[in-house]
Amino acid sequence: MAQVEETSTLEQNPESEQGEKTPLREYFSFSTDHKVIGIQYLVTSFIFYLIGGALATAVRTELATPEVDFVTRELYNSLFTIHATVMIFLWIVPAGTGAFGNYLIPLMIGARDMAFPRLNAVAFWLIPPAGILLLSSFFVGNGAAAGAGWTSYPPLSTMGDKVGEMIWILSVLLLGTSSILGAVNFVTTILKMRMPGMGLNDMPLFCWAMLAASVLILMSTPVLAGALILLSFDLLAGTAFFNPMGGGDPVVYQHMFWFYSHPAVYIMILPVFGIISEVMPVHSRKPIFGYRAIAYSSMAISFLGLIVWAHHMFTSGTPGWLRMFFMIATMIIAVPTGIKVFSWLATMWGGKIRLNSAMLFGMGFVSMFVIGGLSGIMIASVPFDIHVHDTYFIVAHLHYVLFGGSVFGLYAGIYHWFPKMTGRMMNETWGRIHFALTFVGFNLCFLPMHYLGLQGMPRRVAEYDPSLAPVNMICTIGSYLLAVSTFPFLINAVWSWLKGRQASGNPWNALTLEWQTASPPPVENFFGEPVMKTGPYDYGMNGRNPDRQSNTPMLSGGPTVS
Q1: pLDDT tens profile 78-105
Q2: Residues 329, 308: contact at Cβ < 8 Å?
Q3: What pLDDT was estimated at residue 19?
Q4: Under 8 Å between Cβ of 164 and 172
């Protein structure tokens, strides 16, 4: 196996490590630069995250007391429905796949841009109107947004305000179209635009994670689109696809909905798995443990994610033999996930861990996701799931996976790649304050919900047994602390972008290809041809000590280069 020995323009001109900043007006334009589009995704999705968080705070304020005394029952239904929709379709999915996928994939594989730049821009510009459309449902018609939950099960979704429900359907269809267009671009770019000499087993693990997530999007999202179109026909045209009175079956909608919406969990979490696989070795100063096991487990999750959807339907009259199949399949999917967790722990074991903000959020991700995964194994068991179905135990599990998992991981990615995106370093003191407030607030809010669920408190209901009021008050205080935790991050991000310390081309002494160019990168990513000399995770290998290297790394696309 020979190694490539050419020298790039950047290596010859280290003073070029400071890239040119993109004019602000570019971020408000129909740009085809994947880096601009990635930041457009990130900033837009974070704005929707703040809106979704405000809706969640209103929900928890109502639940601070057992009585309905803050908002009406109808508005409460709309608040938790739009909160969940915003957080899933307008924050985690576009931030993980759209933002980091767009910004990093061409840089990591040595490409100049995405395969279809104009399609890439179209995919992003579907998101702002879809989000505005969704939020406008609070102000049109009789002022009632969709209130049937983010699942929108019939017959409940066909009984309320049809205007709000139709706006919800249209918004989700637009967002699903955006995801499909993005996934086509990611798959094509990864498979067809890698630099010469970079095989699939030479790619950074984030690229593997994005490939797995994109395949899931292409396989499952059209099924959700079909379900929502049929539901809209029931709403507007009087058809009976899901209406038992006309010969329809509402359980068919549940199958179609969850065929997408359980894979959606992995669409949200797989890019974050990739982020963590990049953050851990850099800040542990160790090679990643089990490169191929992590890479192939992403594809295993992508496959298994398509055959576990009915574990959401154990109480929907599912036959016993089918329950058994989905229970076993759900437990099996913990195996490739566990491979990743143990590989990350093995990567940290014995490493020179740098407890900066990126690493703290990465470690927080692992701990919170493991808790969510353990409760996921519990509710994969049919008897236990029937006991806690539609209780706050499910709410706790969901948030430990998607907030404790996805959001912690997204924060780790932001702190890690912020110098590359902006050419500035974030303030570590503010970053540690942000982590502490987020970690404490999150656990204070959601850990007690396991107890509430075991006590039988139903989700999506504004009133509850007064004996549970003290625990709910603790959860509400935690939600307020979680809301406050975003302020240090906002202050840090804005101030650092404008006035932060200048970042070198490679402030972390990382080995993946995106760190070989300037910070921020030039328009076409690299000043010359990118060069591969060593693996992306070869810290301390071949007698090298990366901590003593210059800011220009020697790179390879993977473990070896043919």
Answers
A1: 999 999 999 999 999 999 999 999 999 9
A2: yes
A3: 63
A4: no
Single-letter amino acid code for the residue at 299: M
Nearest to 452 by CA among 438, 442, 465, 462: 465
Q: How many CB atoms lie within 10 A of CB 562?
A: 10
Q: In this structure, what token pair is assigned to residue 494? A: 């804005």
Q: Which residues, listed in sequence order, are joined to residue 519 by a DSSP beta bridge?
A: 18
In the numeric block, which tokens belong to residue 8?
A: 């790039």
Query: Tokens representing 246?
Result: 């006309």
Burial 502-529 (b: 16+ CB within 10 A, else e): ebbbbbbbbbbbbbbbbbbbeeebbbee
SS3 annotation, 222-247: HHHHHHHHHHHHHHHCCCCCCCHHHC
* Phi, then psi, of 137 in degrees rounded to 5: -65, -15
Rounded Cα–Cα distance for residues 258 and 13 (Å) = 53
Buried/exposed 365-388: b ≥16 CB within 10 Å, e otherwise: bbebbbbbbebbeebbebeebeeb
Check residue 24 and give its pLDDT.
Answer: 80
> What six digits make up the tokens of 559?
């473990």
Closest CA to 180 of 221, 210, 122: 221
Specify the amino acid at residue 94: P
Nearest to 409 by CA among 339, 470, 443, 359: 359
Q: How many angstroms separate the CA atoms of 263 and 8, rounded?
A: 41
Question: In the chain, which stretches have pLDDT less than 70?
Answer: 1-20, 141-143, 542-562
pTM (2 decimals)? 0.92
The pLDDT score that the predictor gives to residue 16 is 43
Burial track 325-347 (b if 16+ CB lie within 10 A, e otherwise): ebbebbeebbebbebbbebbeeb
Amino acid of residue 413: G
CB neighbours (10 Å) of residue 315? 11
Output the pLDDT for position 415: 97
Q: Tell me the CB-side half-sphere exposure of residue 145, using CA atoms within 13 A.
A: 27
Distance between CA atoms of residues 75 and 69, nearest Å: 12
Q: Find the helix packing angle between 486-499 and 428-454, rounded to 10°.
A: 160
Residue type, 495: W
End-to-end CA distance of the chain: 5
Summary count for the chain: helices (H), strands (E): 21, 0
pLDDT in tens, 357-413: 999 999 999 999 999 999 999 999 999 999 999 999 999 999 999 999 999 999 999
Tell me the backbone φ, ψ of residue 146, rounded to 5 degrees: -55, 140
How far apart are alpha carbons 361 and 356 in whole angstroms? 9
